[in-house]
Design goal:
By secondary structure, the protein is α+β, with helices and mostly antiparallel strands. It has a domain at about 10-160. The protein has seven helices and four strands. α1 runs parallel beside α4. The longest helix has 24 residues, at about 20-40. It is globular, with a radius of gyration of 20 Å.
Length: about 210
């Protein structure tokens, strides 16, 4: 996909913006240029990926661990429709919220987890942002961008999967024996990046990022 990486916007497209928002957009454009250069040179984003060997050591099932090496098959039954949707109105509730959204996007770009495109995404889900108090963030607030894949038209094309509910605290306690200990870990900024099989690139009408075919 190196032939599609690039800016689809320019800073001069946005005139008379508040200074605080303009600063974020200018920095985002610079970070996108860095990521574009990396993708053009290496054929993949700069963000670190989990390896198949590392996944096996973590106890991930063999089929999922294999997907990190050979690529994961897309379970699309047909090509999703091409359309774009505007972000949810709450993104524009006030200037502070809009800046938070842009700052979160900038953070993901800096991590090498977002690839800039020359053209607008052909499936764009409505976006929202979720705020959650967190003592581990500099400003005491965790911010996450949420995409509604139901409204985007992607979900109807995904293979069926069984839902699994989390156990209640009482069920967990009942399952523990004498002198058992229980711990929970939440790995910050852990993104699962799956390569896509070459056959599926052809199905979606893209060139393979390495072979170009």
């Amino acid at each position: 996909m190196a032939d599609t990486v690039g800016h689809f916007w320019e800073p001069q497209n946005f005139q008379d913006l508040p200074a605080a928002l303009r600063v974020v957009l200018d920095e985002t454009f610079i970070e996108e240029e860095r990521e574009i250069a990396h993708v053009l040179e290496h054929q993949f984003p700069s963000g670190a990926k989990l390896s198949a060997a590392g996944a096996r050591q973590l106890g991930v099932s063999s089929d999922r661990a294999e997907a990190w090496g050979s690529g994961s098959a897309l379970p699309f039954k047909s090509t999703p429709p091409r359309f774009a949707r505007k972000p949810y109105s709450l993104v524009y509730t006030n200037l502070e919220t809009l800046i938070w959204v842009c700052v979160e996007i900038l953070r993901v770009v800096k991590l090498g987890k977002a690839m800039p495109w020359k053209r607008m995404p052909w499936i764009l889900s409505p976006t929202a942002i979720v705020f959650k108090a967190s003592p581990f963030e500099d400003d005491g607030m965790k911010k996450r961008i949420v995409c509604d894949c139901t409204a985007s038209g992607v979900n109807p094309h995904l293979a069926e999967h069984r839902e699994m509910s989390l156990p209640t605290i009482l069920r967990l306690l009942q399952s523990m024996g004498k002198d058992y200990f229980m711990a929970k870990s939440d790995l910050k900024d852990l993104f699962y990046n799956f390569p896509v099989r070459q056959a599926d690139w052809t199905f979606l009408g893209f060139s393979h990022p390495v072979t170009g075919q």
